């Protein structure tokens, strides 16, 4: 059983009250999505403390571990009802820090430096956030640096050129993650609560959290049916969108257009029908090396997808919050094969006695 501290804050993070009496708490975190929470309070709670964009701090201390900030949620919903027995309750619902970029668009014209960028995927992500929420945004659009910052550039992932004028910021960040994954180096992002009052937009390759994989990770966590800490393991292979040969068009027109061809000969020659072609438009590239890089990125995007997933069982030796957390990278053993995956989603349910139900999913990193 874990211990919880819940605090209700003003929008600026000033604490209003500790919530030590509640009927149920449910909260979740999901990679690259807006996480949510629900808190049911008993009749008698001071409703004057509840208002839009007030914050709920969720602190959790696992058995044998230390108290840590799990997540901070914006109050975005309020429900008041009385059941058949005449018992009245109040429910508040909230959304986590990824709610901030979900409410902004890239408010710049097509062709502008802010709406068309070239660089590594992580640096482009950070510049988009700076331009639309952070220090490079117009004053009326900035979230104060008192409450929000952007991690320094680290130049990870593939180099791309992408245009995204007038699109939703969170949607573009999600698209960029998929672009990076297809090119072979997944870039994860999150609005991470570094303190109860401050979020930082962060990116990271490999995994968002810590690496606990076998054999070189720190504090290795091994999951498996035989260990009693993995349920419903599933392995999938999908060849449906495979590409084995790419024609990449650079600059020029008609017969004079520069064309580079690349292929994966192993996959192409795997069967009589292994040639699966695609065209990559790279008219912005003015060199053979640039066209080759663009073609290889498209070829990588067309690899067959091998996916492993499973439910993590919170158990002795693999306790949530003590041995692993949301966004960490773990190893799973299934039918003699090792799969290294990321904890992609966590949902925690807590009742009034403190009893927890934890649901978490591990998915492979491609």
Strand content: 35-45%
Number of helices: 5
* Biggest β-sheet description: 13 strands, mixed
Radius of gyration: 24 Å
Strand count: 21
Arithmetic mean of pLDDT: 94
- Percent of residues in helical segments? 10-25%
Distance between the termini: 35 Å
Determine the structural class based on helices, strands and strand pairing.
mainly beta
Order of helices and strands: EEEEEEEHEHEEHEEEEEEHEHEEEE
Low-pLDDT runs of 5+ residues are none
3D shape: globular
What does this entry look like structurally?
Strands 1, 2, 3, 4, 5, 6, 7, 13, 14, 18, 19, 20 and 21 form a 13-stranded mixed sheet that branches. Helix 2 runs antiparallel to helix 3 (169-182). With 366 residues, the chain is mainly beta. The chain has helices spanning 99-102, 121-132, 169-182, 265-268, 288-301, and strands spanning 3-9, 15-18, 24-30, 36-42, 55-61, 68-82, 88-95, 116-120, 148-150, 159-163, 187-193, 199-205, 222-224, 230-238, 245-249, 259-263, 277-281, 305-312, 329-334, 337-351, 356-364.
Please specify the SSE layout and strand pairing.
Blueprint: E1 3-9, E2 15-18, E3 24-30, E4 36-42, E5 55-61, E6 68-82, E7 88-95, H1 99-102, E8 116-120, H2 121-132, E9 148-150, E10 159-163, H3 169-182, E11 187-193, E12 199-205, E13 222-224, E14 230-238, E15 245-249, E16 259-263, H4 265-268, E17 277-281, H5 288-301, E18 305-312, E19 329-334, E20 337-351, E21 356-364
Parallel strand pairs: 9-12, 13-19, 15-17
Antiparallel strand pairs: 1-2, 1-5, 3-4, 3-20, 4-7, 5-6, 6-7, 8-10, 11-12, 14-18, 15-16, 18-21, 19-20, 20-21
Helix pairs in contact: 2-3
